[in-house]
Amino acid sequence: MTGWRLGFIMAPSNLITEMKKTHQYLVTSTSSITQAAGIEALTHGLDDGSEMRDVYQTRRDYVVKRLSEIGFNYIYPTGAFYIFVQLPQDFQGTSWDFATRLAHEAQVAVVPGSAFGTSGEGWFRISYAASQSALREGLNRLALWRAQTTTQED
Hints:
Elements: H1 13-26, H2 32-44, H3 48-70, E1 74-75, E2 82-86, H4 95-106, E3 111-112, E4 123-127, H5 132-153
Antiparallel strand pairs: 1-2, 2-4, 3-4
Helix pairs in contact: 3-5
């Protein structure tokens, strides 16, 4: 249940005992609404994962295709629904600068790579957990903004 921060682990009891030592200090209690949603998911949504996997693969394929068309380099995602994208070579500034300008000038939200530590600098992260129409709109705005800023900086 991504975003709800709810999950469970099945493991041998000796591992669970050790995991609980860390877990109890990292999280607080889960809200009753989230717990009810978890019960619903386990009761009626056991097959939802297969369908969502296909949806996310379609979204991923669309996002990487558009990023390639726009001219961005990226790390091809094979697990989660995020993609790390390299800042353009001609961009003068940090990943924070890039994300801030993109938000203000194109109304597109991305996460600066620096949010993930020093090795993330020079990159930004896009989530493709949004709807297909939102992804299309966001990537169209990114492409237009990139074309405009490339022209202005030349």
